[in-house]
Amino acid sequence: MMTKTENVLEVKNLTVSLPGDGDRANAVENISFTVAPGEIVCVVGESGSGKSVTASAVMGLLPAALKPTDGETLLEGENTLTAGKTRLRDLRGTRMAMIFQEPMTALNPVARVGEQIAEMLEIHTSMSASERRKRAIEIMELVHLPEPKKMVDAYPHQLSGGQRQRIMIAIALVLDPALLIADEPTTALDVTTQAQILTLVKEMQERRGTGVLFITHDFGVVAEIADRVVVMQDGRIVEQGPREDVLRNPQEPYTQMLMASVPSMTPPERKPVEGDFAIDVDGLVKRYGHNGLFGRGRVVLAASDVTMHVRKGETLGIVGESGSGKSTVARCIARLIDPTAGSISLHGTEIATLPESKLRPHRRKVQIVFQDPYRSLNPRRTIGLSMIEAPVNFGTTKADAIVRARQLMQLVGLPADALDRFPHQFSGGQRQRICIARALMVDPEVLIADEAVSALDVSVQAQVLELLDDIRQRYNLAMLFITHDLRVAAQICDRLIVMQKGIVVEQGPTRQVYSNPSHSYTRQLLDAAPGTEVEFGSGRAS
Amino acid sequence: MTDVKSLSPGRQTLRRLVLNPSVLIGGTLVAMILALAILAPVLGTRDPNELSTSNRLKPPGYEGTMRVYTDEGRMKVPVWYPLGADTLGRDVYSRIVYGARISLVVGVSVAGISIALGVLFGLIAGYFRYLDGVIMRVMDGLMAIPAILLAIAVVSVFNAGVMSVIIAIVVPEVPRVVRLVRSIVLSIREEPYVEAAITAGTRVPTLLIRHILPNTLAPLIVQGTFIVASAIIVEAILSFLGLGIPADEIPTWGNIMGASREVFQLHPHLILYPGVVLAVTVLAVNMLGDGLRDTLDPRFARRV
C-alpha cells in the first residue's frame, strides 16, 4: 500500500462537508496541493476560507461535525483520512507535528517544559528518563533557547511568548517529523518576536529537510518565508504557485484584490496638518499597583512622561509592541482609567484630574473604537439602542437621535434598517463600521481607534481604514490611531509616536520615521516587519 | 418557523429552553406541586389541624366515623383517611397537601430575598472596588454561620415561625449570591461595550442595570432554583427538629415527620408519605435548575 512518493504531503481533491445549517455546503471543496521535503508552503486566506480545516483534516483532528466526504491526504503516501485512531496517534509526533497560534494555552501550565518535550519521547520511543532529558536539552539548544540546562525545569508561565513558541517548535520537531503544520504560529506574537520565530522555522526546515505547511492570514509573513503559496477563498483554492509568481504577478482577481488590500510599508507623501491642538497631553504618567497593606506591592509604570498633541484633522499614530503602554495612554485620554500624573487638555479644558461628575460633559468629545468588534456592542441590545445611547445621555430626543443614526448608518455603508437588528447578525467588518458610526453620534472632537482594524481581514481592513480616513477629513477630527501593525500605521498616520515600555522613544512625521528612524528600537521594529522586500498595495484598494 | 438568527438573543434562549427535557419534566412536576398548594382546599382535604382522639394512628385508607359537636348536640360523621391519621388523629393527606404551601413559600421567599440582597451587594462589591474588601469580608463571615445553628439562635431570641425560619436560611445563602454576581460584574466591566457605554456618558446606575445586570440574569435564575431546593430541605430539617414552624399551627412536611418521630417504627407511613413528597419536590426543583443551567449558561454547564 505504501507507495514511495517524492512529496511529504499530497492533498488530493479534499472535500470536507459542513453540517446542514452552515452558510455553505463544504468547509473545503475539492482542494489539491503538495508539500515537498524542505519546502514551506503557505496557505493564505481570510477568515472562514477553510485553511485551518485543511490542516486539521491532515492531522486527523477534524471536529466530529465536519466529515471529509471526498479525496485523500497522503502523508508520505499514507492516507491520514482513513487511518485508524491508533495509527494516527503514532503518526502524530513521529511523522507529522503541529504548532498552534496561542503558545500559552497549547502548553500544559502545571508541567515543566522539559517534561512536555520528554513526553513525546516517552510516548513514541523507548528512551530512558535520563536520555529523554538529555534529548530535550539538545532540542532546546537547537531552537536557540537560552541556558537550556536551566530552562528545561521551567514552567510555561516563566517564559516569554516567543520562548513558549520555541518550546512548541521543540516539541513538534523532537521526533524529526517529515511534515510540520504551523497554524498561525506568529499571530499572537509581537513583530520582533515573530521575526525570530519565522527565522527559526526557516532554519529548522532547511537544516532538517522538514516539509512545512504554514497557515497564515498575513501576506507579510508569506512574503518572508514561503516557497510556494496556496491562496484560499470560501473553501476553494483560488490560485497556487511559487511565491514570486503569486505575489508579484497574481493571476486571479481575488489574489490581486488581496494583494492590493495589504497596506504598503512605504508611507505616502502627506501635507503636515496645520491648525489648533484638539488634544494636548503633557507629562502623562500611569502607574499600576501600589504599596500593599502588608509590605511592598509590585509597581508597574505603564506610561511614563508621555507628551504629545494632536491637531484638528490630523491622525497621530501610536505604535509599539504589547506592553509598550500605547493602549494605556489611549485609555487615560478617554478617562477609562485615571492617570497618575500629568495633564490632558481638550481645547484648553484640563480633564486629567476632573472628577466623574464634572467630566461627564467632556465625555462626548472623546470617543473610542475598540479592537474586538464582537465584544464592542452589547449583544442583548439592538444596534439602534446602542447607537442612540450616547446622544440620549446628553439630552438629544430619541426621535432626533434615530434620524441621526439612520444618516450615519448610510455614511458607513450599512442599510438604515440595520438599526432594528442585533449585533450577532453582522460580520466583524460591519460591526466595526457600526462602532465607528456609534462614536460619531455625539460629534466627537477626538476619535481614538485602539487597534480598530487589527482583528479584521485585509480586504475588510482596507475598507475600514478608508472609512476612518474619510471620516477624519469630513468632520475635521483629531484621530489617535493605536496599532502594532506598521503597515497600517504607514498608510493612515500623519505623524507617529513610537512607544517602548511606557516611554516615547521617537516621534515625528510618518514618512520621516520610516525613512530615517532615529531610535534603535524603531529601526528594530521596521526591520522585523515581515515581507518588506515585496511591495504590496501600491496605494489603497479603491 | 421564523428564521432563528433574526430573533433577539433572549428569544433564542427561550426556544432552547422549551425544548430541554430536564426543564420540561422538572417544570411540570414543580407546576403540579404549585397547583397542589394553591388548590389545597378543593382537593378533598379537611382542616389539617382538626383533631380526633378516637382516630389516632389509623392506617392509610381507613374509613370510620368522627365525633363532632354542633348546636344540636353530638354527632357522628363519616371520615376517610387516604394516607392515615397521625398521633393526634389528624388527616395526613390534608396535612401534606397544605404543607406544600409552606415549603413553597419558604423556598421561593428565601430565593427571592437572597437574590435581591445578593445582587445589590454583588453589584456594589464588583463595581466599586474600594467597597469590595469590606463587603466581601462581611460575606465571608456570614458564610461561616451554619443555617441550623443560626436557626436555633433566631428561634431562641424570637418566636419560632415562618419569618425566623426564612431569616435563618437567607443569611448563609446571601454570600453565595454575592460572590456569583461579583465575579460576573468583574468580568463584564472589562468588556469593550461597557467601556463604550462609559465613554457615551452613561451614568453608573444605568450602566449597571442596562449593561451589566442582564449578564447575571441567567446564572441567577439557575442559582435561584438551587436555593429554592436547599431552602425547602433546610426548612424541613428545622421543622423536624422542632426548631421551625410549630406543628399545631401550620403543617409543614418537616413537622409532620417530626410529630411522628417516636412512633415511626410502628407507623412508618407517617414519615414515608411526607418524605416522598419532599424528595420528589426537591428533585423536581433541582432538575429544573439543571435544565435551566444547561440552556441558559452553557459555559457553566461544561465546567461542572
Task: Provide a quick synopsis of the model.
Chain A is an alpha/beta fold and 542 residues long. Chain A is built from 20 helices and 20 strands. In chain A, a hairpin with a 2-residue loop joins strand 4 and strand 5.
Mean pLDDT of chain B: 87
- Percent of residues of chain B in helical segments? 55-70%
> What fold name goes in the CATH topology slot of chain B?
MetI-like fold
Low-confidence blocks of residues of chain A = none
Q: Uncertain regions of chain B: pLDDT < 50 for 5+ in a row?
A: none
Biggest pleated sheet of chain A: 6 strands, mixed
Q: What's the total helix number of chain B?
A: 11
Strand order of the largest sheet of chain B: 1-2
Question: Gyration radius of chain A, to the nearest Å?
Answer: 25 Å
CATH class of chain B: Mainly Alpha
Write up what this structure looks like:
The complex is a heterodimer of chains A (542) and B (304). With 542 residues, chain A is α/β, with parallel strands linked by helices. Chain A is 37% helix and 24% strand. Chain A has 20 helices and 20 strands. Chain A has helices spanning 51-59, 85-94, 103-106, 113-124, 129-142, 148-151, 161-173, 191-208, 219-225, 243-248, 253-261, 326-333, 356-363, 383-393, 398-411, 428-440, 458-475, 486-492, 510-515, 520-528; strands at residues 9-17, 26-35, 40-45, 67-75, 78-79, 96-99, 179-183, 211-216, 228-233, 236-242, 277-288, 300-311, 315-319, 341-346, 349-350, 366-369, 446-450, 478-483, 495-500, 503-509. In chain A, the strands form four sheets. Chain A has a six-stranded mixed β-sheet, with helices on both faces. In chain A, helix 5 (129-142) packs across helix 7 (161-173), helix 8 crosses helix 20 and helix 14 packs parallel to helix 16 (428-440). Chain A is globular and about 70 Å long. In chain A, 48% of the residues are buried. The model of chain A has no long low-confidence stretch (mean pLDDT 89). In chain B, strands 1-2 form a two-stranded antiparallel sheet. Chain B is elongated, with a radius of gyration of 24 Å. In chain B, strand 1 and strand 2 (73-81) form a beta hairpin. In chain B, 42% of the residues are buried. Chain B has eleven helices and two strands. In chain B, helix 3 (92-127) runs antiparallel to helix 8 (204-240). Chain A binds chain B through residues 334, 336, 360, 363-364, 366-368, 370-372, 375-382, 386, 389-390, 393-394, 421-422, 424-425, 435, 438, 442, and chain B through 5-6, 8-10, 191-193, 195-203, 210-211, 214.
